Amino acid sequence: MARRPLVMGNWKLNGSKAFTKALVEELKRELDGVTGCDVAIAPPVMYLAEAEAALNSCECSCQTKQIIALGSQNVDVNVSGAFTGDISTEMLKDFGAKYIIIGHSERRTYHKESDEFIAKKFAALKQADLVPVLCIGETEAENEAGQTEAVCAKQLDAVLNTLGADAFNGAVIAYEPVWAIGTGKSATPAQAQAVHAFIRGHIAKHSQAVADQVIIQYGGSVNDANAAELFTQPDIDGALVGGASLKAPAFAVIVKAAEKAKA
Ligand code: 13P
């Protein structure tokens, strides 16, 4: 089954108002004419307004605007009320955000987010009609101990066992081995493909149809030099890009590589 690739930029804790405006405008120029790949950016939520305004301004091509969707790096499970510092699904929708990253390893590690809590976020996003981008992946120690599949299965099961396989209809999974994030040491295409095939197979145990349509991105040191080879793999449906998403030319090379590989 043909799946439309998705390349998403996770800007993490980077940027400013001026940086956001400039990068979005440059991305619009660089991505002009791309039709075969979905593209999303997740700036810090502080700058969603700047990103939305820059996407909607008509100085550049209006067509390009339509291919760059907005996203967020996190969301809370609550919709409103006394939850200091949190951001709700409704607030994200207010800015036109669509793809919402949850379960990133940096949040699992630095904010002690559990599989169960992340599953609740997944449910909140489905409830709000937003697209969860569920990050999963093993640490270096787990990888060396041969636990990659067990870790990924456990992280998926938190959603599968509470919401069912249908929750993955229209959702996105990002396989991001922790040892590859920000290290310059990407998984090889063959390594990533093996885990992606395992992930799809794990969903298929519940529903083949859901498994066939779910987008599985690879993330971890994806750059303009290694993206094309990663995208040759049948179960790699795009990328979740950190560092290289902060530079429009590099990000555009990655998007165009996905478009070409999956044409
Ligand atoms: P890098 O591309 O900087 O390795 O980050 C990957 C990532 O964590 C995307 O969510």
UniProtKB/TrEMBL annotation:
Reaction catalysis annotation: D-glyceraldehyde 3-phosphate = dihydroxyacetone phosphate
Entries under InterPro entries matching the protein: Aldolase_TIM, TIM_sf, TrioseP_Isoase_bac/euk, Triosephosphate_isomerase, Triosephosphate_isomerase_AS
Residues that, per the record, bind substrate: 10-12, 182, 221, 242-243
CDD domains reported for this sequence: TIM (cd00311)
Major localization listed first in the record, in broad terms: cytoplasm
Organism of provenance: Muribacter muris
A GO term from the CC aspect: cytosol
Record Pfam families: TIM (PF00121)
Oligomer status and interactors: Homodimer.
Keyword Isomerase set for record: yes
Pathway listed: Carbohydrate degradation; glycolysis; D-glyceraldehyde 3-phosphate from glycerone phosphate: step 1/1; Carbohydrate biosynthesis; gluconeogenesis; Carbohydrate metabolism; erythritol degradation
Record's keyword annotation contains Cytoplasm: yes
GO MF annotation, one: triose-phosphate isomerase activity
Active site: 104, 176
Main function: Involved in the gluconeogenesis. Catalyzes stereospecifically the conversion of dihydroxyacetone phosphate (DHAP) to D-glyceraldehyde-3-phosphate (G3P).
Name of the protein in its database record: Triosephosphate isomerase
Single Gene Ontology BP annotation: gluconeogenesis
Enzyme class: isomerase
EC number, UniProt record: 5.3.1.1
Keywords, ordered alphabetically: Cytoplasm, Gluconeogenesis, Glycolysis, Isomerase
Subcellular location: Cytoplasm
Coiled-coil segments: none
Family note: Belongs to the triosephosphate isomerase family.
Highest taxon listed in the record's lineage: Bacteria
